[in-house]
Design a protein that fits this description.
With about 350 residues, the chain is mostly helical. The protein is built from 15 helices and 5 strands. Strands 3-4-5 form a 3-stranded antiparallel beta sheet, with no helix packed on it. A two-stranded antiparallel sheet has the order 1-2. It comes from Anaerosporobacter mobilis DSM 15930.
Length: about 350
Amino acid sequence: MKERNYHEQLNIDNTKKLRELIKELPPYVATYFRGIEHTTAPRTRIAYAIDLRTFFEFIHQTNPLYQEKEIRNFEFDLLTKLESTDIEEYLDYLKLYTKDGKEYTNDERGIKRKLAALRSFYGYFHKNKMINENPILQVSMPKLHDKAIVRLDVDEVATLLDTVESGSKLTDKQQAFHSKTKERDLAIMTLLLGTGIRVSECVGLDRKDVDFNNTRIKITRKGGYEAYVYFGEEVTAALQDYLVLRNKIPAATGHEDALFLSIQKKRMGVRSIELLVKKYSSTVTTMKKITPHKLRSTYGTSLYRETGDIYLVADVLGHKDVNTTKKHYAAIEEERRRSVKDAVRLRE
């Protein structure tokens, strides 16, 4: 039997996870997920399933008519009985609720995402004429307040890479591991900072995906399509140094192709790289919470400052909509517009 690659196995794992979530929900939820399968990503469907579970738990907990029923047995006509006021109560509930003795909170972004899941859910049945009314359309999306884009400055990037290379600011315990993983860690950090790829794209890399002849890597983007991302001399050097060691490591069964291996000789996961970034970045700045996504923002900022081409930045980062890119780099666009205010002279 042909061995599955990382992304094929991930899709299988996501399918299993979604099926387990659907088992907890009313049968018509499965109909909805079959209907949106070809227009949504697996991770989106899982997030929607979790959000819908929260919605049905709210109904179960707060509506006397449904407190005695198992969620699995909620009838389809529940959707037609709910009004916009019920949805507004649900949004208020999301701000603070308790489940299994633990408190949960949602900020405006979390509430907006859960409302988006409900909009998609109701929208599917309304579009297919299975319900006549869609109360979700009467509920306004929460207004989001802009957040400052967190990114590293040029000197912070240099300090960060120096720290990864030397391990000088790490604790004694961290330095013990650093001696074994320095080349790997430097390759990961340099790759993230030098290409702007997502952490999920990084963990999915296999050794064969690195093409030094054309200075590029083949990645699998969100949505499952493949793309090439090009890298420069610093990334080349870091990857080559690491691969000299990587090619000598006998990986665990099923992980032989993986580019980045953990101490256990298995493919590194998203969480492992998130912790790696946190460990090193905390030695550089305590004022900024640096994640792999912030390294991506750092790369995007540097590329936009150098090229001034927002469409190129969008393409390199894999944004399907250039407006997503514009939103992230609006402050730089404003700065560039201001810089040319005296470029045109009306009179000498």
